[in-house]
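Form 7-S
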Amino acid sequence: MAGLETFLFVILGILILVVFILLLQHFHLNKLIAFGKVQEARHVPPNDQVLNYIKGAKDAGLGYHEIRKNLLHAGWKKETVDTAFRKL
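Output:
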């Protein structure tokens, strides 16, 4: 019975390792693809949530750099954030 348990743990470990590698490759490739894209000069309309956040953050006393950093860390695209600042 101990041999069967060991075999199952080895198989489980291999499956976990394969899933981890696939996830790592997926996210790594997405980052490479994003960095490899040529940025086109295009207008990106600002999102109302971004505009509202910027207004509220300014009212709370936050500066441009801190607001921008917060939005980028929250996952907003650079173009959307920059367009929103220009609109305000």
